[in-house]
Design a protein that fits this description.
Blueprint lengths: L1 E4 L1 H4 L11 H11 L7 E2 L7 H6 L1 H7 L3 E5 L1 H6 L2 H17 L3 E8 L19 H18 L5 E7 L17 H11 L1
Parallel strand pairs: 1-2, 1-3, 3-4, 4-5
């Protein structure tokens, strides 16, 4: 398995990125359940689709059966037009490897959208933030409709609902990483 994503996938916020972040927790679970999958973690702080494209040689070298995306950096910073221009060829290249793609699309529960918002740490999100995420999710759904080996998995943002799952820097803490690992199981 190859894991792609930004700082959370790289282990930011965990007390030890090698043991308490979601990737090592998931790898431990896989080993305990006698699966033959190992994980190549290509997570990178601030990573966006162009960074994933630059890792294509590493992705191919790993010969993955599964490639996961938890692209929080793209949801926060990449314009939806770039999702169309850059994700299409990237996902097609990954699909050509024979790997199954698991793409976690970020969502905000409607009860946490309120007017102009005060940000995730303030208990709600601006309607414009939710709209931007929805546009990106709609783009990914349309992109995925033309691929044969991809699963889109809703990933509800938990920052407003569970601030106790976050480190001081806004990344998931150990509890938050454990919650993310549970979503992969």
């Amino acid at each position: 398995m190859v894991a792609l994503g930004s700082s959370t996938t790289a282990g930011a916020g965990a007390s030890d990125s090698q043991t308490t972040a979601y990737i090592p927790l998931l790898e431990d679970w896989l080993q305990q359940n006698n699966t033959q999958l190992s994980i190549t973690n290509l997570g990178q702080g601030g990573a966006r689709v162009t960074d994933y494209q630059a890792k294509m040689t590493q992705i191919q070298a790993a010969q993955p059966e599964v490639v996961t995306f938890l692209p929080f950096g793209d949801y926060a910073n990449t314009p939806v037009s770039q999702w169309w221009s850059d994700y299409v060829p990237l996902l097609e290249q990954i699909e050509d490897t024979g790997a199954h793609i698991m793409f976690f699309d970020l969502r905000i529960e409607p009860q946490y959208v309120c007017g102009n918002g005060t940000g995730p740490s303030g208990g709600c999100y601006a309607a414009s933030e939710a709209h931007g995420l929805n546009q990106k999710n709609d783009a990914m759904a349309a992109i995925a409709a033309n691929l044969s080996n991809i699963t889109l998995i809703p990933f509800n943002d938990t920052n407003a609902a569970h601030p106790e799952w976050n480190a001081l820097d806004g990344h998931p803490n150990d509890t938050g990483h454990s919650e993310i690992a549970q979503r992969f199981k």
